[in-house]
Amino acid sequence: MTRPIPSAALAAALMALAGGAWAQEVELIYLVDNSPDTVAVAEALAAAYMEQHPEVSIEVEQRPGGAEGDNLIKTRLATGEMADVFLYNAGSLFQALNPTETLEPLDDLPNMAGVLDGFKEVVTGTDGRVYGVPARAAMGGGIFYNVPIYEELGLEVPTTWEQFAANNEAIKAAGYVPVAQTYGETWTSQLFVLADYFNVQAEVPDFADRYTANEAKYADTPAAMRGFEHLQEGFEKGWWNEDFGAATFDDGLRMVAEGEAAHYPMLTFGLGGIQQNYPESINDVGFFAQPGPEGAPNGLTVWYLDGIYVPKGGENTEVAKDFANFAASQDACQVILDTIGATGPLLIEGCELPADVPRLVQDMLPYFEEGRTAPALEFLSPIKGPALEQITVEVGSGIRSAAEAAALYDQDVQKQAQQLGLEGW
Amino acid sequence: MTERRARRSPYPTWFFLPAAVVYGALFIVPTLASFWFSLTRWNLFEAEFIGLGNFRQFFREPFLVQGVVNTLIYGTLTSGLKTVLGLALAVLLTGRIWFRGTLRTLVFFPVLVSTIGVGFAFEAMMHPTRGVINVALEGIGIDGPHWLTNPSLALVSVALVDVWKGVGLATVIFMAGLVSIPQDYYEAARIDGATRWQQFRRVTVPLVRPATITVVTLSLISGLRYFELIWAMTGGGPGFSSDVIASVIYKQYQAGFYGLATAGNVILFGLIACIVLPLTWWFNRREVEL
């Protein structure tokens, strides 16, 4: 025990009394994606849990991220080969797992009461039960920027796209790469589209509902199409780095941390990678929300990060649920803070951020404090087309125009909606 | 009576049973099941019958047309290059040259290496700015192309790596074909005053035909359904520019569109059958005519 936490200790004691099943040694497999900070947190959580429960040993198993990982998770769930407990996205990807049939409901966990409602909503199945506990802090999708470049050129943080474009021209003239793009890992290409959702809903408040009901399309909603147009503009104006087609996520973080590039559109969880690989540059990286059109409100698109889930029909379900319960405790929250630091607002009540958070998180907090946030579309609608990352690579590489790309994405979305069996498609 | 007994196999019929069970359970049953699932919207838990909806959807897939074209380009390009280079190498390696054994090993070696490993290694070597190929080209003053990230070059780059990796097998098949040609023909040709080229054109090429048929058929089938190397090197990208039918199908599985993906496999099965069956029939007919 690191610190005495009454509820967790009580729960553990109750479990120990009730659980004849786990008097002997139990081996748990915890499946997580292979991004460095996820693995670091998973290992630390497992170690902390094993310290409290010497009879349990937890092995952290890694899987690829992105579409490859989606495939693996779905196949393993469908074939009954899933690990005892696993980490996976919340929101639409969680819904695609068919949670009411494949996952254990977790709403009766003692620590569930302390989980923030905003997170519970995005891991709730169609039957109204909660199936996951938060694995990490919330994150924002927006633009990382290199503070020394901004200071050297006397630039200001942009709140409109026009200002952002003007900054990019100044940066280009000074010989830096204005915007890093990293299509070697295709998922990173989606940011300009997905992180624009605050601006979309500011202009079309009912977009998510009408989109889910097959009434609104990307191609015929100018506000929604703007994300694709931004990518086209960036390619045409030569804002990208030379090796954008092959560069990787880590290359992108390096470029913006070490001042090769001024901007990198990314989710704030990239902070973990910077901390691990470029720790000396951690306070050179700032963050702002993706700028919208002139005169519109300026705010941040928010992602609720992965949840921890327990599959139905596992051999060690009770122990796995107890581990999930531990992951929702303030103890676990502290472990996360100790391992990767504060990456954003935490989703467990009473878990406070330390005073000396990195610059990037500081830049993110005002949006939350002032209520200038909106969830990303994938948390408001179950439909996300699987080919978006290829389509955004095409637009960002000059292969397809924004208008054609939006129309193509609408077709991709239709397939997903039909597969999910939604009304009206 | 005696005549009938003579035609019968010396083994009892039930000897074939184990093989039939394995073949039936692992091949025939899944194949028939896939025809059924291709007609459903299937999420691995339940399948809803939707008729030919998946086939309609698959043919509407905007990347599919490109996928089919790319598959044909890839299949012909790799098959053609493997045949031509394989024959040339086989002629070289059956001739009297130094280090023949070592060279034979070198040519065959890539066949033994893991495809995914080859894919990742070449992906690193073909990196546009840091890859060994472009760094070397820069050293001699050439600005190397973006091998895998230029949409019009990506598929060709992968095909070249595939040829490098697969030509060893074609070479071995051709070598077997070449050594089985009796030397008498060459001797007769030389007495008639045939040049080296005439010997190759008039003796080697016609008599090595059975090997050619094997190489063309095998490499065409594998080229048409090829997947691993493309997936490891480009993932079908940039965008959809190096997608082939197999990678389009894989992405539908990945997205959880199991019925649609199965329909894609049925289409691929049909396409390969439509190309390879007439081809082998044509080859065999020509062989009889000779």
TrEMBL record, chain A:
Q: Name one Pfam family in it.
A: SBP_bac_1
Is Lipid metabolism among the key words of this record?
no
| Protein biosynthesis as UniProt keyword | no
> Please, which domain of life does this record's source organism belong to?
Bacteria
Arranged from A to Z, the UniProt key words for this protein are: Cell membrane, Lipoprotein, Membrane, Palmitate, Signal
User: Which positions carry the signal peptide feature in this UniProt record?
Assistant: 1-23
- PANTHER family given for it? ARABINOSE-BINDING PROTEIN-RELATED, POLYGALACTURONAN_RHAMNOGALACTURONAN-BINDING PROTEIN YTCQ
Name by which UniProt lists this protein: ABC transporter substrate-binding protein
From TrEMBL, chain B:
Q: Main subcellular localization, coarse class?
A: membrane
**ABC transmembrane type-1 domain sequence ranges:** 68-279
Q: Mind telling me which InterPro entries this protein's record contains?
A: ABC_transporter_permease, MetI-like, MetI-like_sf
Pfam families per the UniProt record, alphabetical: BPD_transp_1
Q: Which residues cross the membrane?
A: 12-37, 72-93, 105-122, 163-182, 203-224, 257-283
Q: Where in the cell is it found?
A: Cell membrane
Kindly state which keywords UniProt assigns to this record, in alphabetical order: Cell membrane, Membrane, Transmembrane, Transmembrane helix, Transport
- Give the bilayer topology: Multi-pass membrane protein
Among PANTHER family, the record links this protein to: ABC TRANSPORTER PERMEASE PROTEIN (PTHR30193), INNER MEMBRANE ABC TRANSPORTER PERMEASE PROTEIN YCJO (PTHR30193:SF37)
Q: Which family does it belong to?
A: Belongs to the binding-protein-dependent transport system permease family.
* Name of the molecule in the record: Carbohydrate ABC transporter permease
Query: Upper taxonomic classification of the species?
Result: Bacteria, Pseudomonadati, Pseudomonadota, Alphaproteobacteria, Rhodobacterales
